[in-house]
Amino acid sequence: MVAAGVKQTNSYNFLRKEIGFENINFTKRDCHNFLLIERDKMIEARDAQSIINFFKHKQAEDPLFFYSVQVDQNNRLANFFWRDERSKLDYDFFGDILVFDTTFRTNKYNLICAPFVGINNHWNNVLFGCAFLSNETTDSFFWLFETFLQAMGYQQPKSIFTDQDQAMMKATEMVFSKSSHRLCMWHISNNAKQHLASRFANSEFKAQFNKCFYQCESKAEFEYSLATMIEKFELEDHTWLKRLYELRAKWCPAFSMDVFSARTKSTQRSESMNNILHQIMDSSMSLIQVIRHYEEKAKEFRQEELNQDFRCKNGAPSKVNGRGILQHASNIYTLTMFKRFEEELMDSIGLNCIEGASDENYSLYQLTEDNHGRIYFVKFLLSNGNISCSCNMFETLGLLCRHALRVFVMNNVKEIPKPYILKRWTKRQNQYL
C-alpha cells in the first residue's frame, strides 16, 4: 500500500479496520521500523547500481581498471573491491610489501573500509586498491584476498602485515601461502598493556618486555629473554602470553631475519590511510560519494609522489662532494633513502673493526659498537665484492648496514656493488610515470 502512495499511518489504520486490531501481529512502530529497513534496502540497491555504473565508466576510460563485487543470498551488494591501472603498476614495482587493516567503518551502511597499502621508493604510502566489506568473516576475507591477487596478476608479496583477527589470519594463510605473514606489533603491544596492565606499572618489567619484543636479533636471544621475563615476573600460567608465544614466528622480528619486510612492524600505514579517509568522510555519505573521496585522496598521494620525483631529479643532496660510495648513493637512491644510507655510513665511522680469519677468497671481520656489547660478523668475498652481515639489515630492509659499509670503506670500495642496489629504493624505480 505504501508503495502505491498510501501514507504509512493510513495503511496501518486501514488494515486494523479491515481485519481487526486483534488480528494484526505488529504495532505501528513495527510498521515504521520495517519500512525504514525496506527504504534502506532500496537506497542500497540504488547505491549499488551507482557503484556498478561508476566502475563500468572507469573501465571504459581505462581498460586496465579492475573491479569485483560479491552479493549476498538476497542478491544485494555485500562486498566490493577496485583498483585502477596506476595501482597495478605501483604493485608491480612495490608489491613486495603489503599492509592490510580494517579498523575503520564508514557511511550509513556501516561498511568496513579495507585499503591495501604499500611502501614506495620515497618511504611513503602507496595505494594498491580498496575494498568495502559488509562483515569480517573468513569467507569475506578469502573472497577479497583472492580477488586482490587476481587483480594483481597473482603476484604474491614477500611480506604481508595484518592484525590478529582470527578470520583475517585464517584467510591470509589460505590465500597468501607464498608470503611471510606478519602480525602488527603495535596491536600486540597495546593488547599486552591490557593483559599485563599490573606488570607494566613496573619500569623493570617494561624494559624487559621491550627488549624481548623489539630488540632481539636471534631466535635464541628471544627465547632466553622471554624465559627470563616469564620466570622473573611469574608469568608461567599467563594464558594470553601463552597464546602469543604460539604465534611468535609471526610477530617476533628474530624469526624473519631472512625475509624482506622493509623492517615494517605494524599495520599503521594502512591505519593512517583509514584515519585520513575517516577525516574526509561523513557518515551520511552514499557509497559512490565515499568512493569518489577515496579517488581524490589517491590523486593527492600520487601528486605528492610526482613532487618528490621532481625533487629527486633536480635537487642533489647537500654536503656530497667528489666521488666515493656516498656520491654513488646520492646518484641512485631517492632523497629519503639516501638519507638513511648516509646515516648508516656516518655511523660506521665509530665502529670497532677487527679482521679475523681470511684466505685468498674472503675476509671475516668482527665489529662492535661502543654503546653496547653486541658483536656483528661481516664476511667479504674479495673476488666478486659480495658481502654479508650477521645483522641481516640488507636482507630485511634492502639497504647496506653500517657494518658492511665499514668493511667496504676499509677495502677502498668506491661504489655500491649492483647486487646490493635494491631497485625499489632507487630514483628510477617508478620511471614508468
From TrEMBL:
Residue ranges constituting the SWIM-type domain according to the UniProt record: 376-412
Xref: InterPro entries: MULE_transposase_dom (IPR018289), Znf_PMZ (IPR006564), Znf_SWIM (IPR007527)
Gene Ontology molecular function terms on file: zinc ion binding
Coiled coil: none
Source taxon at top rank: Eukaryota
A Pfam match: SWIM
Keywords: Metal-binding, Zinc, Zinc-finger
PANTHER family per the UniProt record, alphabetical: OS01G0519700 PROTEIN (PTHR47718), PROTEIN FAR1-RELATED SEQUENCE 5-LIKE (PTHR47718:SF17)
Protein name: SWIM-type domain-containing protein
